[in-house]
Amino acid sequence: MQFPGSISSKFPQMATTIFTKMSALAAEHKAINLSQGFPDFKVSQYLIDRVHHHMTAGANQYAPMAGMPQLTAAIAKKVKRYLGAAYNPQTEITITAGGTQALASTIAALVREGDEVMIFNPAYDSYAPVVELNGGIPVFIKLKFPDYHIDWDEVKRMITRKTRLIIINSPHNPTGTVLKKEDLDALAHLVANSNILVLSDEVYEHITFDGLPHVSAASHPVLAERSFVVFSFGKTFHATGWKLGYVLAPENLMKEFRKIHQYDVFSCNAPIQLAMADFMEYDEVFHIGNMYQQKRDFFLEQIKGSRFKPLPSSGTYFQLLDYSAITQEADVDFAVRLTVENKLASIPVSVFYNTPTDNKVLRFCFAKQDETLTKAGAILRNI
After folding, report:
1. Which of 97, 114, 115, 117 is nearest to 105 (CA)?
2. Which run of H or E residues covers position 152?
3. Extents of the domains making up the chain
4. Per residue in 42-69, pLDDT tens?
5. Residue 16 above 80 pLDDT?
6. Could you tell me if 267 and 63 are in contact, meaning their C-beta atoms sit under 8 angstroms apart?
7. CA geometry: angle at 95 spanning 122 and 76, to 5°?
8. Tens of pLDDT along 256-266?
């Protein structure tokens, strides 16, 4: 069936995302899928049981717009313990339908026609389209290859009177880098005494390695008062399909967020919210960094002897591999060939840039069972 009239697309240049394409290609060619960022191991049985409990107990109607009070209270307690930050559970915490919705609603609440929004490339692919959808102008600044650090002097030069929002992401997807206190201090110095706001994407907050701490905008006194800080239960509890997250912000900023949230989502899954509140009573459920570090190290052990060069991964569940010693093919072409011929799917890092930037690097997700990573390693060693 086709609409018989004319369609004036709001995004005529927008195509299907590379994640959808590579996962579809992996399925078509029966390839191991290390492209899309999701775990292939089970959700806690206790958490599943708590969801079932609340469903059978009757928690199946709309939740309050801002979230179940049991969950917002549990989040406030957790944020205080892990980040040392105090947020009012009634007025400064909102439950969202995953991290991506929190990001989109924040941008929609803040960005007007002609506003500039700074985005650090390579970047999670949802930032720029939502900025453009709301009339904003993405201003892209490249992270410095090969360690993907931010040049704060360049950021200073790029700030204008039109700068409305700066988006940061740590731990960083796709590179696995982690911002340090010095980075947040540098950002705070640039935005202090201005009307510039910060959107801090921290959905991988509990996945850092080698003793590196997660440093949150919520913990920084200058940044906290002007930041929306986004988190994800799906990333933390291996339940990405449940699409549940939350955002922190000062009360006056959160009022603006909720003006959008009440219409684009209104409320999120009630029994899952209550189950999450129960689950968060156990502190050990947040201690997942060591498990993922073991996964990273296991994956790296499997590719020893290959011609792929690992770039440092300090957080997230992604590992970048430099393949420049193997071929000078464009990364998109090589990723496709790797999937079709070698039966292993990855993501070419160039797709995370707004302009052609091909450093011959692929991203692999190691949030998989050891058997899967062993098979992937065998493939990579033979290329």
Report:
1. 97
2. helix 152-158
3. 18-43+287-381, 61-284
4. 999 999 999 999 999 999 999 999 999 9
5. no
6. yes
7. 100
8. 999 999 999 99
